[in-house]
Write a structure and sequence with these properties.
The chain is of the alpha/beta class and 589 residues long. The protein has 13 helices and 23 strands.
Length: 589
């Protein structure tokens, strides 16, 4: 399942999530919520009147891009919206871009069983104690385990020594939130500008009951709000109750403070622009609102490590889809493209993970999407994909798509790819890298970054004494005798982890080449120039020989084999190359 662009190898959790309580189907469907896109050039008054005419009530409106959230009891609302000349269309406002159906906070791919986790614990602890394979004398405790930063020259003696980033550069993390109290995040976190565009949803009535298909059952989504650390469904903007967003933020800009790790750009400003639910689901409206907000407050770069929409690919007129489904997908494409264009016009460099489906985007005609729509569960059906189908936001306008590589620099087995899809590549981790060696299937082949303590505790990844119970979570303390000074870091893998490396390098480029923004006092650089400098400074990597790369020695099935098209300057595995922080800050000096 390719949702949030992360493949987390972590403890197995119970799948007994369906704790039904029946609600009548009639009651559930009496009022529904939609995202409506207004036609271009239509006045707000005319569009609003059209919504009212077909039985809709506007509950939220984004005037910048002509998108509104609407409630209605009209069962034919999508079809009626398409028929209105003032409206482009409508889409159900339901969770989109989920980590995995109904699995709160845990990612559905690449988990180890308990026996394998136990067998590797000793070697991981030994590697941490001896400093692993990295250089000695690094300032941060876990710097020797940061093969990712060593690969791209983002270390104490390379890019950090030349330019660690400017606080005037603002990086927006569009994700599940940021733990602003984490000691590696707090020095660079801006709570005043951070926003949360979501509200936790305890349960959602959507799944037909097993014992009575005519009834709908309540299924946990974000979980009981009373059980959350803040006891609220409206989380403050410095909270992450999932862990994904904090990990991404740490890769971009974890501070140099003698604790844990250092990010690619350890002195830039991190802003939480939350668009994802605790459960990892993403709604369309918060995603659009997050992008426009980033533009309005002078954010320089955003990281988007997620998919939007329940459709893996958004197709305007796929014959396998119903007219309503086609209309919804057209609406999602329009809303997303408008928000992306608005952000780009207002100076935001847009960077996203390429995806974790090991698909060749140069040959979309060979892709069969069998997972869409992934919400509600059980509604997916197979669809043959065409070149006109878009994977958003990755394939949106002006978005820099990042593929993932492992420690050996080979394309990570899970990473999507394609000469027309990959702009650059970056370290994302590859648990199956280095086959035939002691490093094969080791956590240190993944990317290490910050992790919220509340999430680690919730899932039993630390015990009552605060000590990790899994080799995928590491602990570091400012004062070993004082547990209040301790914090946690974890290993993830995915193009979710590759994208923030590219974002960090882009932040260094703006720090080095940006001009002072008279509006907010920060720095700014045209996004097109930022992209050019990012791609030109990347380290070129040729396709492997033979070009059809086989993952056979990694115990992967044959359908993971990947064909690399293109030359040294740009190819399907690496794009223009692996991002290079050191080269980026030295360029033109």
């Amino acid at each position: 399942m390719r949702k949030l662009f992360v493949l987390v190898i972590a403890a197995l959790v119970s799948t007994a999530l369906l704790i039904p309580s029946a609600t009548s189907r009639t009651q559930q469907e009496s009022t529904r919520e939609y995202v409506v896109v207004y036609e271009k050039g239509v006045s707000l008054a005319t569009a609003r009147a059209a919504v009212e005419r077909i039985g809709g009530t506007i509950v939220k409106e984004n005037r910048k891009v002509g998108v509104a959230t609407v409630r209605t009891s009209n069962d034919e609302f999508v079809a009626d919206a398409v028929a209105q000349r003032a409206l482009f269309g409508a889409a159900s406002n339901r969770p989109v871009g989920a980590v995995g159906p109904l699995e709160k906070k845990k990612f559905s791919e690449e988990r180890l069983d308990a026996e394998r986790r136990a067998s590797i614990r000793g070697s991981v602890q030994a590697a941490t104690a001896t400093g692993g394979a990295g250089e000695s004398g690094e300032f941060e405790t876990f710097a020797p385990l940061q093969w990712d930063m060593q690969m791209i020259g983002a270390t104490k003696h390379e890019s950090h020594d030349v330019h660690p980033g400017d606080p005037g550069v603002r990086v927006g993390i569009l994700d599940t939130g940021i733990d602003g109290s984490h000691p590696d995040i707090a020095p660079n976190f801006d709570p005043a500008l951070s926003r949360n565009f979501t509200t936790d949803i305890e349960t959602i009535v959507t799944v037909p009951c097993e014992d009575d298909p005519d009834e709908l059952c309540e299924v946990p989504l974000d979980g009981p709000c009373a059980d959350e650390p803040d006891n609220s469904c409206s989380d403050p903007a410095d909270v992450d109750e999932n862990g994904h967003g904090t990990h991404v933020a740490g890769t971009v800009g974890a501070a140099v403070n003698g604790l844990g790790i250092a990010g690619v750009a350890p002195e830039v400003t991190l802003i939480n622009i939350r668009a994802g639910q605790d459960s990892g689901f993403f709604f369309l409206q918060p995603s659009v609102d997050a992008l426009t907000y980033a533009a309005d407050i002078g954010v320089d770069i955003v990281n988007m490590s997620y998919f939007i929409d329940p459709w893996l690919f958004n197709c305007r007129n796929n014959p396998a889809d119903s007219p309503e489904a086609q209309a919804e997908q057209r609406t999602i494409i329009a809303a997303t493209q408008r928000a992306l264009s608005y952000a780009h016009r207002n100076g935001v460099t847009l960077i996203a993970g390429a995806g974790n489906g090991h698909e060749n985007f140069d040959r979309k005609d060979e892709i069969v999407d069998e997972t869409s729509p992934d919400f509600p569960p059980g509604t997916a059906y197979p669809r043959e994909i065409t070149e006109n189908c878009l994977d958003l936001p990755t394939e949106g306008r002006n978005v820099i798509s990042v593929t993932a590589v492992g420690p050996s620099t080979r394309k990570a087995y899970y990473s999507d790819y394609g000469r027309g899809h990959a702009a650059v590549s970056a370290p994302g981790g590859d648990f199956r890298d280095y086959p035939g060696t002691p490093r094969f299937q080791m956590p240190e082949n993944l990317v290490l970054s910050a992790y919220p303590e509340n999430v680690a505790r919730e899932f039993g990844e630390i015990d009552e004494n605060g000590d990790p119970t899994t080799p995928f979570v590491l602990k570091d303390c400012e004062d070993e005798s004082n547990p209040d000074t301790c914090a946690y870091w974890t290993y993830f893998q995915g193009t979710s982890m590759a994208s923030p490396h590219a974002v960090g390098v882009a932040a260094l480029i703006v720090s080095e080449h940006g001009r002072r923004d008279q509006g907010d006092g920060g720095l700014e650089l045209d996004p097109n120039r930022t992209e050019r400098l990012l791609t030109r400074s990347a380290s070129e990597h040729a396709c492997p020989q033979p070009r059809l790369f086989s993952y056979e020695d990694s115990e992967l099935p044959e359908d993971f084999d990947a064909f690399c098209a293109g030359g040294l300057e740009r190819n399907g595995f690496y794009g223009h190359g692996i991002v290079d922080a050191y080269a980026a800050v030295l360029r033109d000096r």
